[in-house]
Design a protein that fits this description.
The protein is mainly α. The chain has one domain (about 1-195). Helix content is about 40%, strand content about 10%. A hairpin with a 5-residue loop joins strand 1 (about 45-50) and strand 2. About 30% of the residues are buried.
Length: about 210
């Protein structure tokens, strides 16, 4: 049954990412041009992340901060509301989570899934080998654009506490759970509730 769910999950990822990229293509172009003409630097932000089985992959997002922002100010930690490193367009993209749209490409090529644990950077908060055997279960599936932790506790708990929800998701992996999480995510976006706030690692959303 698990293999069947993984097969269906991949089919949904492929169809969902293709549909999403086609549907949002005009918006993707507008965002790209807005970034290009309002701040210096590349349109996209590339960063190494830990994926399935701890393998490193490159995540793709729209750039929302000035170039080399991670070497300025508070480094990886960001104040979403008043961090001067965030560009004007970046503030809007982050508040609406539109900066995450390029990750649909990561999903299409099989590096990510629409739903799964969020992928951390390889060196923070832990290196892959520093996670406990239980915690490494979160890496048994592909990382997701959204996940159970994001729609359940969002940023109200620590990274380690959030992993508990990631493990629960992996243990109970089911396509219907994915569908429920995606609908909850859409509801969160519609009501403009920030899924990725400042208390969790994934606040580093350049």
């Amino acid at each position: 049954m698990r293999k069947f769910n993984l097969f269906l999950k991949r089919i949904i990822d492929i169809l969902g990412s293709i549909f999403g990229l086609i549907l949002t293509s005009p918006l993707l172009l507008i965002i790209a041009l807005s970034i290009k003409f309002t701040s210096e630097g590349p349109i996209f932000f590339h960063q190494e992340r830990l994926g399935k089985d701890g393998k490193v992959f490159i995540i793709l997002k729209y750039r929302t901060m000035v170039v080399n922002a991670e070497k300025m100010g508070t480094g990886l930690f960001i104040e979403p509301e008043n961090d001067s490193r965030i560009t004007k367009v970046g503030h809007f993209l982050r508040s609406t989570s539109l900066d995450e749209l390029p990750q649909l490409w990561n999903v299409l090529i099989g590096k990510m899934s629409l739903v799964g644990p969020r992928p951390p950077v390889p060196y923070y908060p832990y290196k892959y080998e520093e996670y406990s055997d239980l915690q490494r279960m979160r890496f048994d599936v592909k990382p997701g654009i959204t996940g159970l932790s994001q729609v359940t506790v969002r940023n109200s708990v620590s990274w380690d506490e959030g992993i508990v929800y990631d493990i629960e998701y992996v243990r109970n992996l089911n396509v219907w759970i994915d569908i429920k999480i995606m609908f909850k995510t859409l509801r969160t976006l519609i009501y403009r509730e920030n899924i990725y706030g400042k208390s969790r690692f994934d606040n580093w959303r350049n």
